[in-house]
Amino acid sequence: MPSASQSAATSSPTNFKEDLLEYLAAYGGNALDEWKKHICEHDMSSARVRLIASVPGRHTAVNKTKWGHLKLRKLLHLHAGGSLPYSSKTAIKQPYLTSFLLFLEISLLW
Q1: Is the CA virtual torsion 10, 19, 32, 110 positive or negative?
Q2: For the residues 5-10, what does the mean pLDDT come to?
Q3: What family classification does the UniProt entry report for this protein (predicted)?
Q4: Cα separation of 38 and 44, whole Å?
Q5: Which has the higher per-residue pLDDT, 99 or 77?
Q6: Rounded distance, CA 33 to CA 25, Å?
Q7: Smallest Cα–Cα separation from 48: which of 100, 95, 6?
Q8: How far apart are CA 31 and CA 104, in angstroms?
Q9: Going by C-beta distance under 8 Å and a sequence separation of 6 or more, which residues neighbour residue 25?
Q10: How many angstroms separate the Cα of 62 from the Cα of each of 3, 13, 59, 65, 71?
Q11: In sequence order, what DSSP letters do the residues of 27-87 get, joined into one string?
């Protein structure tokens, strides 16, 4: 991904950058500040992927559909029109990435 200074748009239509930063922020502390800074410095407007991360804990209100299977359900309902199974006419146009916790576990070990 190019640096953010080379492009006016830094976010993608799928909100990948924001979702990734929210995921890292959900763990709190300063351990991931270097990763967050590095991500902020890059233009991710070409990212065409949805991030569905799992964050441990009990989530309520607005945070209830931010993580895990409830976010996946929300996005499938939004993009598939709530009718599953869906036809190729309503098929999801963006890939989905799940099980992102491994990345965080590895980065905390280093």
Answers
A1: negative
A2: 55
A3: Belongs to the tyrosyl-DNA phosphodiesterase family.
A4: 12
A5: 77
A6: 9
A7: 95
A8: 10
A9: 36
A10: 31, 20, 8, 7, 11
A11: T-SSTTHHHHHHHHTB--TT---EE-----S---GGGGGTSHHHHHHHHHHHHHTT-SS--
For the purposes of burial, counting CB atoms within 10 Å of the CB of 110, is it exposed (0-12), middle (13-18) or buried (19 or more)? Answer: exposed
Q: What's at 33, amino acid-wise? A: D
Return d(Cα 69, Cα 54) in angstroms, integer.
8
Total residues belonging to the chain? 110
Model confidence pLDDT, tens digit, residues 70-87? 888 888 888 766 555 544
Only one residue has tokens 């895990």, namely 68
pLDDT tens for 51-71 read 888 888 888 898 898 988 888
Tokens read off for 23: 């995921």
Question: Per the omega criterion (within 30 degrees of 0), is the bond before 85 cis?
Answer: yes
